[in-house]
Amino acid sequence: MITVNFEEGKALYLQLYDYIKEDIIQNRMAKDTKLPSKRDLAHHLGISVNTVSSAYDVLLDEGYLYAVERVGYFVSPIECLHKTPRQEKAEAKLFAPRYRYDFDLNKNGIFDFPDVPFQRAMMDSMREDSEMNAWDKEGIPSLRRAICHYLRASRGIDASPENVILSAGMEYLFRILFFILPKDYRYFLENPGYIDTKKIFEPTGRSPGFVTIDEGGIDPEKLSGRRGVYLVSPTHQFPTGSILRVDRRVKLLNFAKATDSYIIEDDYDSEYKYYGRLIPALKSLDTTDRVIYMSNFSKSLSPGLRVSFMVLPDELMAMYRKKDPLVACPIPNMVQRALSKYMERGYFERRLNRERKQYDKKRKAALRFFEGDPLFEIDDKRAGLHFILTCKIPVEEKELLEYLRKRDMNIYGLSDFFEGEYNAPYPKLIVGFGNMAPEVMEEGFTALVRALKELAETKEY
Question: Which PROSITE patterns does this one have (predicted)?
């Protein structure tokens, strides 16, 4: 007879179901074994007949039992499941190691998001139904209109909402491009640049090429002349910070037209320029419609928002609609609608103005730790959320980075973003200041300077 030690907190029929199922799976009940009648088992276990009936019904539905009318319930013939012996596994590292001092150039540190205006916009979006239940593959119209208004005012781009596609990250936007562009187009990335971008290509079997840049950014005269898609960051090159001069911009656009190529403009942090007016986007000069403009709200609002977008040239937008890729905007309508209200009401631009002041203050505070010291050479473009620090210490860059990480500092070097052989007389650190809270900056940068000076004392320089 079946015996079950019932526990509190779980329905009795489910406990009985689990017990019988496990006996069948473990082959402790042979096939065609007849089970006790509902009444007999209920009496034996001290539970109701309905409880036994519910357990038998589930086992019957899932195929563990079969019933013979007026005879009873029997164990179904099920093959024995082969089990691999359990092995002790090392605990997986689900999270990246945390450092006491985080100089990561990819992170921002304005943590008051969602702020009150965005929360209000979210609540207002929940109360209305104009676009909440709409389905637009490219994203809801109101947000695409708001983005176009912003691009026209701040980036000099006269874009139509019909050419804007929203998604939850650059990788999704690239999938659309892979689908609509001819297969013989090769993609080229800046070097140094955001090398992890090449991971986007791995599932497709494509292998991107790399274009080495100089102190002025990408040089169109040194391009191969091959038709392709060139990913560039002309306003604030990543990670060197160089600005592509207008003469090179014009040559790059003419090159794209002459070779039937496309330019992907990655405008990842153009909002953060701390002097003069913002530099217009490359797309603003694009009279031949060869530039695919990409940007996001990760730095300006929050990486957790996961809102990215691209503006396609008319020809590519027509190809997109003709081929109709089976992808749709994955951002919830409620988030899209809240963001559109946030922008329409002027809160986004006000936030950017406030952020620029805060980040510029942090930038100046960080630079003061290195200014005037012959051990360091600063390359600061007065833009973005990082600067490059050359440390005149005769040591390999990777050795220096390991040395600093052992001292609880998360920091990158230029070699981390370089494809192929990297040579430099001295290591170059890419010092991010955006992620560190003001109350931690003094302690963090003091610790960084101290560590570098201690290492320098052990070397001849």
Answer: HTH_GNTR
CATH classification of 355-458, choosing from 2.60.120.1690, 3.40.50.720, 3.90.1150.10, 3.20.20.80? Answer: 3.90.1150.10
In single-letter form, the type of residue at position 275 comes to: Y
Pair type for strands 376-379 and 308-311: unpaired
231: nearest Cα among 262, 270, 260, 259? 262
The predicted-structure confidence for 127-140, as pLDDT tens digits, reads as follows: 876 777 777 899 99
Q: Say yes or no to pLDDT of 91 above 50.
A: no
| Domain ranges in the chain with CATH number 3.90.1150.10 | 355-458
The residue ranges of DSSP E strands in 62-163, in sequence order, are 65-68, 72-75, 101-102
Q: Residue 456: in which H helix or E strand, if any?
A: helix 438-457
The CATH number of 114-345 is 3.40.640.10
Closest CA to 381 of 194, 238, 219, 243: 243
Task: Point out the least confidently predicted range of 77-81, 245-249, 256-260, 454-458.
Answer: 77-81
pLDDT at 95: 56
Q: Where in the chain is the domain with CATH 1.10.10.10?
A: 19-75
Q: 326 is written with which tokens?
A: 């089976």
Q: Which residue has the tokens 């302690």?
A: 443
Q: What is the pTM of this model?
A: 0.82
Question: What residues have CB less than 8 Å from 66, skipping those under 6 apart?
Answer: 60, 73, 74, 76
